[in-house]
Recover the amino acids of this structure.
């Protein structure tokens, strides 16, 4: 016999016997067979039951133990300590000497560690989680506000000449967030213009007011669709890229390296991106507006039998400057939000690659959320001032 | 001690080796890593595996535990023959009798340390929840982690603690054979030598067979009974003193370099 155990022991463990007898104040716990995890898993309840008795003395007869693993050793030790802890004398008989080292090892220093069973009930957990989420949201808001301030200070430093603009970085970012986005922005705006005009004309035809499709397309594209769609595309495209770029630099300790060189990460990394988006987004919105109107024009020509000239005359009569102005005014604000959220999340990346992915997702969701909330506020504001 | 253990390993004909490799061949494309490799790992020994970078130490380990299927050869684990190329995971058949500690821990990052240790127990099934928890705490104590580490996530632990937690998970089901991939890499010298002692200690009390890939000469001197050197697509096994006397130039350089001399001279480390 040895400490080795194998298939035969696994089978035998199903037949390990535990006999508990009490005679004249002496509790006798007899074990026969391998005391390994299979056996203990089955007999655990009986062992727990046994320690509830209060005899005068206890004898654990381990003479029949043919194999022992750490689970078995622990259950022996737990059982005997449960009695001895209450001042009852315990004797361990017949355990083979080769197992004594293992028995020595089977020890939990602080059994009062909370167990899984001690978990509070589900309702409390859910409430606590909701509360924590609220606090987290408040913290995110506070952090973002702080970072917003930091970028303003940095921008003011630019005006006073304390920091200088990194021109090359700015141009390369402009190419990336502006020029390279022209294709996707104009295509999507064009398609949405087409859909708007098509669906609008189907409904308006019923009132014999099909010509008003032009007004519908003109006002909705210029006021809302153009800027909102463009902002969402840019948030998904460039906001996420800002987070991933800055986040990866953070992981590689490049951001720390910048700081040790006496350079502010906000000046070097955030400002060029911020300014590039500030310039590029209004231009992209303008392009998106034109593309959306072009989509509307195409459907008008095809479905309503208008000529291009008639479309343009109708459009000129239905929209004024402020329809375009309200749209384009929102663009720099959205640009600021997208850039600040993207860069902020990038700088919050910590350590792992997993964190980069998490922060990137957060940046996109957060910036689209704020953009839509701001858009709603703008709509109310413009309605109140009457433009 | 070396003399005694050596004798008990070689003369014990009744107990077959824990691991027996015969004619193993591993090749990736045209690059042959192992060719006609034979290796016996005896029961109850600590075998160190060394070799230069790219000599196939990790591939050897992966071959034994079934993560890499050799293109030829025979593997016998604890007397069970595993046929090459059958696509059968030997670890599945012998579930619970093997434990592996990966280099960076490979702890499941979404589970706490206790849950990590309980994962293999859960997989086996039939163990009461409270008892699993107790066993997890027991293993945590065995590997020398503080009890409050139980409910921490791997990301909240230091590198050394992660290695210990990983060892605890490897020991979850009281395996007979434990594989360690560079157990002391990335630890400071004190942490590394503590870890060596821990392995030695557990090996004694749990009667483990240990196969460890290591580059730590101190570990080799302190705890390994025998050392397997991967050379020229094959393996040369021997005790430290046998290898030191081996004339092969790579072995000479390995065991007679300045770092090796420092390890040999360190007092109190020789098993």
């Amino acid at each position: 016999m040895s400490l080795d155990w194998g298939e035969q022991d696994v089978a035998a463990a199903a037949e390990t016997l535990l006999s508990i007898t009490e005679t004249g104040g002496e509790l006798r716990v007899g074990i026969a067979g391998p005391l390994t995890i299979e056996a203990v898993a089955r007999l655990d309840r009986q062992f727990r039951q046994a320690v509830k008795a209060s005899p005068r003395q206890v004898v654990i007869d381990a003479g029949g133990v043919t194999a022992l693993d750490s689970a078995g050793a622990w259950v022996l030790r737990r059982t005997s300590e449960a009695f001895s802890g209450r001042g009852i004398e315990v004797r361990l008989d017949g355990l083979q000497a080769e197992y004594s080292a293992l028995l020595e090892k089977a020890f939990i220093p602080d059994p009062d560690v909370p167990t899984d069973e001690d978990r509070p009930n589900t309702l409390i957990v859910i409430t606590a989680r909701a509360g924590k989420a609220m606090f987290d949201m408040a913290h995110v808001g506070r952090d973002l506000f702080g970072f917003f301030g930091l970028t303003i200070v940095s921008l003011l430093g630019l005006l006073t000449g304390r920091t200088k603009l990194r021109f090359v970085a700015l141009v390369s970012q402009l190419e990336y967030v502006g020029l390279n986005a022209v294709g996707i922005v104009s295509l999507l705006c064009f398609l949405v213009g087409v859909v708007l005009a098509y669906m609008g004309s189907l409904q308006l035809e019923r009132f014999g007011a099909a010509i008003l499709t032009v007004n519908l397309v003109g006002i909705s594209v210029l006021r809302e669709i153009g800027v909102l769609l463009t902002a969402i595309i840019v948030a998904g495209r460039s906001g996420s890229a800002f987070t991933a770029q800055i986040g990866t630099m953070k992981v590689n300790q490049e951001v720390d390296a910048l700081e040790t060189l006496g350079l502010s990460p906000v000046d070097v990394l955030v400002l060029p991106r911020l300014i590039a988006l500030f310039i590029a987004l209004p231009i992209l919105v303008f392009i998106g507006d034109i593309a959306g109107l072009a989509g509307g024009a195409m459907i008008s020509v095809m479905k309503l039998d208008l000529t291009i000239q008639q479309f343009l005359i109708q459009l000129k009569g239905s929209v004024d400057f402020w329809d375009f102005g309200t749209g384009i005014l929102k663009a720099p604000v959205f640009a600021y939000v997208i850039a600040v959220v993207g860069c902020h999340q990038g700088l919050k990346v910590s350590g792992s690659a997993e964190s980069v992915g998490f922060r990137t997702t957060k940046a996109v969701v957060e910036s689209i959320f704020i953009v839509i909330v701001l858009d709603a506020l703008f709509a109310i504001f413009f309605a109140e001032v009457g433009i | 001690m070396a003399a005694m253990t050596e004798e008990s390993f070689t003369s014990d004909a009744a107990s077959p080796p824990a691991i027996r490799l015969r004619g193993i061949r591993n090749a990736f494309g045209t690059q042959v890593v192992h060719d006609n490799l034979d290796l016996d790992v005896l029961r109850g020994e600590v075998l160190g595996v060394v070799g230069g970078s790219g000599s196939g130490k990790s591939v050897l380990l992966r071959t034994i535990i079934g993560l890499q299927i050799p293109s030829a050869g025979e593997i016998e684990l604890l007397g069970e023959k595993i046929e090459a190329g059958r696509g059968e995971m030997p670890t599945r058949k012998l579930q619970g009798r093997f434990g592996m500690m990966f280099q960076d821990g490979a702890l499941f990052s979404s589970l706490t340390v206790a849950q990590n240790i309980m994962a293999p127990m859960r997989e086996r099934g039939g163990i009461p929840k409270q008892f699993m928890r107790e066993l997890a705490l027991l293993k945590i104590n065995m590997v020398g982690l503080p009890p409050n580490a139980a409910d921490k996530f791997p990301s909240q632990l230091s590198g050394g603690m992660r290695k210990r937690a990983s060892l605890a998970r490897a020991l979850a089901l009281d395996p007979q054979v434990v594989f360690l991939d560079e157990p002391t890499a990335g630890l400071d010298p004190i942490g590394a030598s503590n870890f060596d002692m821990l392995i030695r200690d557990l090996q004694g009390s749990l009667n483990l067979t240990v196969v460890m890939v290591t580059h730590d000469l101190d570990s080799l001197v302190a705890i390994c009974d025998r050392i397997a050197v991967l050379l020229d697509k094959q393996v040369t096994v021997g005790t430290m003193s046998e290898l030191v006397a081996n004339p092969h130039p790579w072995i000479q350089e390995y065991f007679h370099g300045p770092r090796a001399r420092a390890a040999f001279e360190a007092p109190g480390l020789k098993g």
Notes: The first helix of chain B runs from residue 2 to 11.
